[in-house]
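Sorry to interrupt, but I need a hand with the structure work. It will help me judge whether the discrete encoding reads sensibly. Write everything out right here, beneath this request:
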Amino acid sequence: MSRITSRKERSADGADTAAQSKDTAQVTVRSRSAGAARGAEAAPAQGRLTRGKPLRIKPSSLKGEGLAALLLLAPSMIGISIFFLIPFIDTVRRSFYDARGKNFVGLDGYASVLNNSAFRLAASNTAKFIAVCIPLLLIVSLAIALLIRSVRPKGKAFKTSYLLPMAVPVASIVLLWQVLFHQNGLANNILSAFGAQRIDFMGSNAAFGVLIFTYLWKNSGYDMILWLAGLDGISESLYEAARVDGAGVWQCFRYITLPGLLPTVGLVAILSLLNGFKVFREAYLVAGAYPHDSIYLLQHLFNNWFQNLDVNRLCAAAVLLVIVLLAIILVVQRFFKEAD
């Protein structure tokens, strides 16, 4: 009987253990299914984030940002409109009317400008000046930037010295011209000391060379800063890898520096082109309203027409100049954009 009783007790304990194992398994299965369900719910959300689909932004937030941008741009746009856009529109309008602005003359003002001998002389001199100065300025300023970069950090002093001409007032530059290039100036005294004949720098074709020298001297420092900014954008690791492969200075310059500076070349060229029209101040203060023919620029012509109140031809010539400059800038930008 005792054996039968012990067997019954063992069977009962086994049944209880099996029931507990079954309950534990059910709880485990339920917890796993719940975790899988939560993972399934989270998976689409993660998929939506990782698939690169654009997030939905409320239109109200876009409107708010656009309004804020307009408010910030409004002062600048108002100033540009008042001082640039509106006067230019009025200039275009006046180019089709007579000097009094009452009688419509059509394209007669443009025909008068193109047939004017003074305009052709000034336009040819300005084009020659730009064609000579811009390439020279780009080469000289780039060479200075490369030299300063090669001697860093000692090149900071040289960089500051090249920027000094930008701080020199125009009146001081005029005095410098007179001291150096006058008939009895320093340059002629040096020539006389070596037995050479004196040169009338401001009354001969040599005035064009003096004007180019002044432009290069005054603007090389500004372009040098732009070149240095472009050079800083080229990774030094490219030069290190090229040197490891046995590349020399010229090969690094040709295959790394020049391609890396292509975006900067367009900017420097456009700014140099615009700065080329500011050299009129020095030429005007030294040689007056009617300088030697070699340095008679468009700015001299515009100034003389303004003094004579020849508004029709002045406006027509200004519109033509804007069209030419805009075409040049667009061509330069397109060229360097395709090259980049």
Summary: Confidence is low (pLDDT under 50) at residues 1-52.
